[in-house]
Write a structure and sequence with these properties.
five-stranded antiparallel β-sheet
Amino acid sequence: MKKMSLLVGSVLSVLGASSTEAQSCTSSFGQVPGIPANTWGNTVPTNRAVYNNCVTDLVLGLAARPRGTGNPAVTDDGVSTYFVQAGPDVSTSPAAGAGFGTWNFAFYVGGANAGQYSYKLRYDFNGATGNTLDLGLVAWSNAAYANSWNLGMGFLGASAPGITPPSGPSFNPNSGGEYSFALEAYSGESMVASTNMTVVSSVPEPSSYALVAAGLAGLVAVRRRRRSA
């Protein structure tokens, strides 16, 4: 399994002071500093997140989570890779969206000095093509921010204003593959920190589909018997 690594170039000191000597800094995995557990991005388990806090009073975090309720669980390798099940969203709260996957990617920007930097969120729009981080981006400035998005959301697609069009087809929730994400902080044009994660989406085995089909058939049969009674 391909592991993501992080190299931070020049790390800035507090409040716009001159940059320090270039140094390496690797993202950590665990509880994101400075935020309560299970409150980020609609119950993301913040103790199972990839985060970077190498720049003073700046925290960047990424994680994957099931969308809503009723979707398959998300697991991880304890480093930077999450494992999800391919397929359409089946949640009932919030209601399923057309073309949405079973999982969301969540991101967090925080810390006392978060307002000094601008940010880019890079995402892989087509996991079947492998790991690519040059597809789309979202940028915002001067604010601490946390959210949980699904690749099926229209504003992340090729037609969205300000988004670099993906080189491949639109997101297919039924497709397996590896999806890459990077959250980057910038001072002017210089990137000062970044954290990365990979989401591995697996297509359920045919036997799993058979079990689901059998279960649905059983429910239908029980309902019919009740109606007949």
